[in-house]
Specification:
With 569 residues, the protein is an all-alpha fold. The protein is 75% helix and 0% strand. The chain is built from 31 helices and no strands.
Amino acid sequence: MLQCRKSLITLLAIGQTLLAGCGTATHSPKTSTQPENRDRPFTRKNVAASGDRSTRNLAEAHAHYAAGVIHDINDEPDQALEEFYKAAMADVGDERLVLDLSRRLLQAKKTDKALEVLTKATALPGASGTLFARLGLVYAQLDKNEAAISANQAAIKKSPRALAGYQNLFDVQMKSGQHAEALKTLERAAKQPDTDAVFLLGLVELCNGFGRAVPEKKDTLKPLELEVLNRAAKLNPANPNLSLKLADGLNLMGEIRKATEIYLQLLSKYGDFPPVRDEIRAKLTDIYLRGSNRERAVEQLEAMVRDDPANAQAYYHLGGLAYEEKKFDQAAEYFEKTLLFRPDIQQAYYDLAGVQINLNKTQDALATLDKARTKFPENFVTEFLSGLAYNRRKDYATAIKHFTAAEVIARVTDPKRLNQAFYFQLGAVYERNGDYQQAETYFQKCLEMSPNFAEALNYLGYMWADRGVKLEKAHELIEKAVKLEPKNAAFLDSLGWVLFKLNQPQPALEQILKAVEFAEEPDATLYDHLGDIYTALKQPEKAREAWHKSLAIEPNDQIQKKLGPPAAR
């Protein structure tokens, strides 16, 4: 039955081919769309009229072509190719057949045969620019650069408003390192009038390729690219793929307003096609984020998750935006959804753990990091975040173990991780663990890397002042921190405290009162310091008032001792 069906299809194919003539028929079901031929059609009729193609040759070509179609239908590509080759060699005036055959031969890596057919076809009078461009492509694949350049120059001369010749010539020049000549080719193409959007946007892609290959010359082409893009924009291409390319090009050139307008038009027209819709929304989100328009970015991302509730990438970006705005509960929710739909996004585990630490949900953060450990190799981030979580839990010894592990991993894999922020954290956890010598070592290392790191200046200075050591140096560091952030309540408190330690209670009081003024919320330590300073200034009532305020914020036995035992009720 199957054989009968094949025979029927074959007979139909032969009949259709003979009725239509191979010079004008669709050659085979597998033939792809041919490049647009802008030259005068090189048809059987024209050639026959000139007397160059004999009836015998045409009959032979028909026979081989029909045989090729049969082999094609029977899924015998090698035999089909051989028959089409014989057909083309018998009738090289059939441009469509020659172009289709040369494409098939190039795909089959039979470049020499493609060259043979194209050489014969381009030798005929009136051969088109498209044929010469294909010949140039074949020469380029054979590394015959001079011949390729010559063929492509001929293609441009014959068809100046077709991109193929410029493109092939540009490729040969770039491949052979002739960057100046390649640039001239692009400029020559840009000067052609009356070109269509396909030509113009293809030229922009070539310009982008030049910029990537020769980055030092990238800016040279920007005016030309922008001019070409604006010409394409005036043509207002109806094809959505061309419109998208146009918007991408304008976006790349910094023409954000124009690009956004086209993206929004495309979104309006093709919002019902998920792949197009999601791609455009992602581009709009990127534009809005670069323009610090978070509200519009969130709008696009929320629309994406409405259309596709399993869009993990959109949830991830929403989580990042919420994180940056310190909306930690919302960020955690988005990151959890990200991992629900895409448990392979490694960074989402770390971002979720970071949010959970900020929410003081350290047990959840450690559980998240444990999940990450089961999926991904040990790394700096896992250990560092574990250190932060244990630090928040006041388990400083365990925190030090994880920070140390992070340091060891980073030394081997990515030393850039060991920056001032890392050593600041390490110094702080050693200080909280009571190892002041190690804390000093890491704070000093942090300040060597970043001498104006205000947090580190203040932390080390306060550590010394609180312990009554290196007071002059401590004063110097804290003063520097206050100059960097004059309204930082913590820094002002440190400055007051080191002045108190230096037996300067009056200047100390001025700084502490400033700290109280700038504090965003009441602080128990600050009021304790204020009470001590009032005591040194022999103002006991004000001192007691300050200590009472401190105890109201946070109970503390040491401060209670300063006040004496609570009055019996």
